[in-house]
């Protein structure tokens, strides 16, 4: 009985540690060659990586398996010329419509554990709500799950910005533009609304970091919180590329305390280009 | 001369009607001279230039865009967004080539262009701003603003001088 409890304890601690990884470790990003485009037949090329500095590829490439692109009319657009190198991935998107495109890597997974033959086991990687039944071995009991939704997306606009692609799916953290993400100018404040599972998400931590970290001493991080409506206003002092991250709160735990329960986790990342006035 | 002022009288309010004598004598044309500077650079390309009119509370009205409009497959439009203030104010909602607006890039020197009151979108009396923005491939960008009022007096109507991508820009009414 005692042994069982300890196992359960250890597994939950391991889960909590795992869950914390995406938030505490390196930064994930996609960097488009342009966010504001003109012309009838244009392309955007995107670098995608996981790194410490922004926006330098010095650690790991972002895997492209989950990357998709949508045209302004909602149709799928091919990810072309995909390549994954040692430090970064790269791909192209052919922009043949006018309006705002969305390029996103979205992962929805289940974390959790189950008991089998007196032992607590972790759910394997790649478990989702859809495949939970087949991932669970026969005889598994006391199944505990928590959903983790990670969204990393960027926007690029040909001609006039459109908002057709901002219809929330109701899963994880999503952005609703108040200010369009492709209409950002230094010296002007921009407002975005964030939803968690389709509802305005109050008190979420919003982190904004300007690119070019390598050439300055201070990180320049801007820490903000969403208000009761899930809205946050960002003041852009300088033009440039900015990394923005929004996450659900991290469970804090003192040594010796009981482990926090496996909690709902969601994270949102985008790269925003702020133009010179 | 007769027709535009009469049209305005019909469409205008009482105050417009009261100012009718002034309008009848008002100039109908704005002449703009834009000096494109001669630059000693290793790789020179003629600038893309956008000229537009702003009025508080009204959408910006593009009156001319000089760009590489004659490239195959409309490829010259790819760089229009580099004229970035104009692109935001007006360009991104337009389709190209745009009738009566599209023009070829122009060489260094004094370039003259004229606009009718209708072209300027200055049908209502009031304060306007003529904006000229130039962006040069592998070069810089510069924007100049010249306020004017309509109805305007005949003769010189304002000037501005750039430092890098634009020289003197002058406005006159006739």
Q: Largest interface, with Cβ-Cβ < 8 Å?
A: A-B, 17 and 15 residues
- The helical percent of chain B reads 10-25%
Number of domains of chain B: 1
Mean pLDDT of chain A: 88
Q: Catalogue the unreliable spans of chain B.
A: 1-18
> Helical proportion of chain A?
under 10%
Taking the alpha carbons of the first and last residues of chain A, their distance comes to: 67 Å
Q: Strand fraction band of chain A?
A: over 45%
Q: Please outline the major beta sheet of chain B.
A: 5 strands, mixed
Beta-strand segment tally of chain A: 19
SSE sequence of chain A, one letter per element: HEEEEEEEEEEHEEEEEEEEE
Spatial strand order of the main sheet of chain B: 4-3-2-6-7
Helix and strand content put the structural class of chain A at: mainly beta
Describe the structure.
The complex is a heterodimer of chains A (277) and B (174). Chain A is mainly β. Chain A has helices spanning 2-24, 132-135, and strands spanning 27-32, 36-37, 42-51, 60-61, 67-70, 76-77, 80-84, 89-95, 99-116, 119-122, 141-158, 173-177, 189-196, 199-200, 205-210, 222-225, 231-235, 240-247, 265-274. In chain A, strands 2, 5, 6, 9, 10, 11, 15, 16, 18 and 19 form a ten-stranded mixed beta sheet that branches. Chain B is of the alpha+beta class. Chain B has one domain (29-173). In chain B, 18% of the residues lie in helices and 39% in strands. Chain B contains five helices and nine strands, in the order αααβββαββαββββ. Chain B has helices spanning 2-11, 14-18, 20-25, 84-89, 117-120, and strands spanning 29-36, 48-55, 58-66, 102-103, 109-116, 126-135, 141-150, 155-161, 168-173. In chain B, the strands form two sheets. Chain B has a five-stranded mixed beta sheet with strand order 4-3-2-6-7. In chain B, strands 5-1-9-8 form a four-stranded antiparallel beta sheet. The longest helix of chain B is centred in the first third of the chain and has 10 residues, at 2-11. The N and C termini of chain B lie close together (11 Å). Mean pLDDT of chain B is 88; it is low at 1-18. Chain A binds chain B through residues 34, 36-42, 157, 159-161, 183, 185, 275-277, and chain B through 73-75, 77-81, 84-85, 87-88, 91-93. Chain B: This is DUF2271 domain-containing protein. Chain B: InterPro entries: DUF2271. Chain B: It comes from Sphingopyxis lindanitolerans.
């Amino acid at each position: 009985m005692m042994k069982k409890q300890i196992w359960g304890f250890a597994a939950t601690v391991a889960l909590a540690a795992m869950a914390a990884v995406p938030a505490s470790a390196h930064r994930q990003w996609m960097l488009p060659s342009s966010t504001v485009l003109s012309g009838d037949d244009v392309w955007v090329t995107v670098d995608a990586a996981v790194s410490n500095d922004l926006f330098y590829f010095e650690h790991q490439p972002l895997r492209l398996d989950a990357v998709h692109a949508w045209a302004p009319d909602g149709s799928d657009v091919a990810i072309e010329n995909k390549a994954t190198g040692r430090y970064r991935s790269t791909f192209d998107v052919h922009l043949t419509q006018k309006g705002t495109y969305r390029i996103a890597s979205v992962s929805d997974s289940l974390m959790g554990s189950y008991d089998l033959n007196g032992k607590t086991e972790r759910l394997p990687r790649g478990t989702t709500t859809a495949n939970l039944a087949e991932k669970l071995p026969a005889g598994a009991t006391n199944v505990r799950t928590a959903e983790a939704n990670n969204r990393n997306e960027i926007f690029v606009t040909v001609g006039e910005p459109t908002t057709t692609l901002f219809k929330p799916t109701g899963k994880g953290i999503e952005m609703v533009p108040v200010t369009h993400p492709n209409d950002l100018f230094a010296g002007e404040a921009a407002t975005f609304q964030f939803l968690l599972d389709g509802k305005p998400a109050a008190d979420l931590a919003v982190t904004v970091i300007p690119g070019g970290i390598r050439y300055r001493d201070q990180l320049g991080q801007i820490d903000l919180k969403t208000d009761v409506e899930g809205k946050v206003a960002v003041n852009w002092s300088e033009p440039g590329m900015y990394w923005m991250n929004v996450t659900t709160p991290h469970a804090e735990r003192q040594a010796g305390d009981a482990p926090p329960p496996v909690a709902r986790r969601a994270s949102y990342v985008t790269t925003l280009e702020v133009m010179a006035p | 001369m007769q027709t535009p002022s009469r049209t305005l009288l019909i469409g205008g309010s009482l105050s417009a009607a009261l100012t009718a004598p002034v309008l009848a004598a008002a100039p109908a044309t704005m002449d703009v001279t834009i000096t494109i500077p001669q630059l000693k650079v290793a790789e020179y390309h003629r600038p893309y230039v956008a000229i537009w009119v702003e009025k508080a509370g009204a959408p910006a009205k593009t009156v001319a865009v000089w760009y590489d409009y004659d490239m195959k497959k409309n490829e010259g439009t790819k760089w229009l967004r580099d004229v970035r203030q104009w692109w935001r104010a007006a360009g991104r909602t337009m389709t190209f080539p745009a009738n009566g607006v599209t023009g070829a890039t122009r060489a260094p020197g004094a370039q003259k262009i004229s606009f009718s009151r209708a072209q300027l979108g200055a049908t209502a009396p009031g304060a306007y701003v003529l904006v000229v923005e130039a962006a040069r491939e592998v070069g810089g960008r510069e924007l100049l603003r010249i306020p004017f009022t309509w109805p305007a007096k005949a003769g010189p109507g304002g000037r501005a001088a750039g430092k890098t991508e634009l020289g003197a820009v002058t406005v006159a009414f006739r």
